[in-house]
Task: structure prediction
Amino acid sequence: IVLFSHIRTGKWSSIMPLNLAETFGFSEPIRAIPIVDPDASHTVGLVAAPGEPHTPLVQALLDEAMTLADDFRAHR
Result:
């Protein structure tokens, strides 16, 4: 929120996800310029303490991470 307030002054600029910027709403002098190149990807790791059962929140995060990883591998 603080960064967005600085940007609204018109004296700052920033790179942020479009959906985050849209949450705050656009008005002059703010505008969105899509970044389309280069297409970049990053490897992200997820670490959880060993042992079962995990708390429901940790298990949900692990399940979602596995689903995303499977989808990513399927579309490579």
Remarks:
- Residues 31 and 47 are 37 Å apart (CA to CA).
- The first helix runs from residue 2 to 8.
- Helices lie at 2-8, 18-24, 56-74.
- Residues 1-38 form one domain.
